[in-house]
Each structure stands twice: as C-alpha cells, then as structure tokens.
Amino acid sequence: MSHHLNWKNQAWIISLGLVLIVLSYLADDLIFPVIESLRSSYMDAVMIWMTQLKSLVFVMYIMTTVFALESKHGRKLIVPLWFSFLASYAASSLIKMIVMRRRPFGLESIFGIWDSSFPSGHVTISFAAAVVLQQLFPRIAWFWYLFAGLVGFSRLYINAHYLSDVMAGALLGYLIGLGTIYLASKNKLLKLPKQKPILDKLKFSWHGDYATEFRRKLLHMLVGISLVCLLHFELITIFQIFLLLSLGIGLSFLAKHYKIPVIQWFLDKFERKHTYPGKGAITFFVGAILALKLFPTDIALASILVLALGDGISTLIGPLGKIKHFLSETKLLEGTLAGIVLATVGASFFVPVHEAFLASTLAMGAEAAEIKFNNKLLSDNIFVPLVAGTAIVLFRSFVG
After folding, report:
1. Which of 77, 93, 188, 202 has a 20 to 30 Å separation from 27 between CA atoms?
2. Which CATH number fits domain 7-197: 1.25.40, 1.20.144, 3.30.950, 1.10.3470?
3. Of 179, 185, 207, 168, whose CA–CA distance to 10 is shortest?
4. Pick from 346, 238, 351: which is nearest to 294 by CA?
C-alpha cells in the first residue's frame, strides 16, 4: 500500500481481519498456555518495555516526528500522524466503555473498572500509526507493522488482553490509519503519487497472476483455521471430512464437463488455470485426513495449521522478497521465513513452541524444495502436513 491506497486490496485485508476476530474469539482461552510456555526473564524485560504506552508513543510518534521535520513531505505527515493517535485513542476508549468486557484473570483491579478489555487501546494506536508511517518511511514499512504486532503480543504476554481484543484493536487501528490517510489526501495535506498497485505488478510465472494467488491463499488459510477450530471443539469428525472430500471429488468431475452455478464462480475466483477443478481444496482435505489418521490429535492439528498458515503466507510474501532461495530456482527466501514464523505461531497452540518451530522449518523447507515423484511435483497440501507431523513424532521419539 506504500504511497497508494488501493481500496479493492484493502477490502480483502479488512475482510480477513473481521474473520480473524471471530476465529480469535474462539481461541481466547487457548492463547494463555502458549504464552506461559514462552516466559523467561529476558522475555519479561522486553515485553514489559514494549507494553508501556510511553515506549509506543516514543518510537512511533515522537521519534518519527523528529525525523519527519527534516523533509517537506515528512512535515506534511506530522499532523495526520498525531491525528491518528487522538482518533485511535478516542475510538478505542469509546468502544471500551460501550462493551465493558472484563480483563483476563480479573485484572480490573489493576487497570481500573472503566478501562475494559475490548479492544486493546495500545494495539489500536500502534496500528493506526503503522499505516501513516508506511507513507512516511515506505522502505521500512515492515518494521512499523512488526513493531505494532509486538505491541499486541506484549499485551497478551502480560495478560492484559484476550487474543480477540488484540485482533480487534489491530483492525480498528488499521481502519483509522486508512481513514487518516484518506482525509489527509482529500484535504491536500498529503500528496500521494499515483502508481499501479503492487498486486497488479507482481506475476507468478508458474501459477498466474498475484491477485488470483492472493484470493486462493487467503481462502486456503481461512479454511485451514476453520477446520482446526471445528476439530478442536469436536464439531466435526474425520468421517464427516471424508464425506466432504467425496462430495468435492464428485463436484470436481461434474465441473469439468458442466458449468455449475456458484461452483463455477468459486472456480473462476479461486482456482488456478490448467488444472482439474477444485484440485487445491481436494488435496488440502486429503492432507488433513492423512494427518488426522497418522498422528495424535495435537500433532495433527498443529500440522494442519502449518499447512494452512505457513504455505499460505509464504506464497503471499514470497513475490515481495528479493533474496533467491537456496532450495528453489523459482521461490524467494523471504516467503519461506514468513511461513516458518506464522506456522510456528499457529502450531504452538497445540504443541510446545520448540516442536512447532522444528515442524514448521522442515515443512516449509520441503515446500520450497518442491518435492517431485516420477518427475511430477507432489502437492504441498499433502506432503507439508506429513512432513510437519513426522518431524514432531520423530523428535518426541528420540528426545522424549
């Protein structure tokens, strides 16, 4: 989004944010055991510093204001930046007073009864700033979102918020940041040079255009997260998944010969060209069923999340990178690294973080290497969860 607000692309991001808020609400109580496993004296010191409002304001507002004074373009952004601070603080405070959600573990005694949990004010302020700062320092846009993300994690780390509080704060802040930039550009306080959106520039020589891959992988991640939630809360069984797979195979056969309403729309929007209809969804459920049959439940759910999150984000981030991957002639290293990070976070909901990291690293390495059989590429939807699950099983067998 650097220097350009492409509202069609923002709609996808906002839609994803809304879905993640709903899913994170289901995982509110699952996050705290994961946080406990990460505690250390070093993490305590870092997170306590990160979670203080004065640290956030100093890094994202005061320090950047000083640098902004050095250029004409930067000076134009100072007013929008501080406007985003006031707007995000006011909006989050108003919603807090309306919702009045209690803090985790009864921490109202520390924060005050009127300073309720939903949404996180710190996260709202930090993400609003990140959007504005992306216009001021586009080359390090990743840093502002990483810093905002760490602020959110710090709020979870000190048990000040539930996961859904943080996700809601991130989306609210993002919306306020977009609104700030929009108002600034309309009032000529900020001049955004016109250019083609980055999604239109990027191409996948082996898959097609980036916009299609963006939609595919977004759906891929949402389906994976939803499936894991349904399995975890015992709302679906392996047999029911098998029935869905069978139905999908039947629809795929029919769709190859006939245009079926609704199904054809999904294929046009989410399916790659020159492949059989629904291949991605079919292989995804095959991989999920194999993981559930071969591994214990905790390992299986972790493996499915490695596939959903790791494979999904690696495809989205990879084309934005610059470092050639040592395991692949067509992929970039940044995609694999992003996949390892997000997959580790997801898998650590069900297995210890060191097992999650090991499984994610090996699985994403295999995904980058593009494993072949009889000179044909194997579907990563099938082998990624198998590699992840096998890595954890072997680790437990040899290390205990």
Report:
1. 93
2. 1.20.144
3. 179
4. 238
Identify whether 119 is preceded by a cis peptide bond (ω within 30 of 0): yes
β-partners of residue 219 are none
Q: Are 148 and 173 in contact (CB under 8 A)?
A: yes
Taking the domains of the chain in order of start, what are their residue ranges? 7-197, 202-399
pTM over 0.85: no
Run means of pLDDT, 10 residues per run, the chain, 400 residues: 52 71 77 81 82 81 79 76 89 84 66 67 91 82 86 87 88 88 71 43 45 75 88 89 90 82 73 75 93 95 93 78 74 83 84 91 87 72 93 89
**What's the rounded Cα separation, in Å, for the pair 193 and 127?**
23
Residues whose CB falls within 8 Å of the CB of residue 108, separated by 6 or more in sequence, listed in order: 102, 115, 116
Task: For CA atoms 88, 91, 97, 100, give the dihedral sign.
Answer: negative
Grouping H, G, I as helix, E, B as strand and the rest as coil, residue 199 is: helix
- 326, with CB counted inside 10 A (0-12, 13-18, 19+), is exposed
CA distance 75 to 387: 51
Q: Which two tokens stand for residue 70?
A: 């050095």
390 Cβ partners below 8 Å, 6+ apart? none
- The answer to whether residues 390 and 299 touch, using CB atoms and an 8 Å cutoff, is no
DSSP notation for 274-289: SS-TTHHHHHHHHHHH
- Give the whole-angstrom CA distance, residue 28 versus residue 2: 33
C-alpha dist (Å) from residue 32 to 22, 29, 328: 18, 6, 37
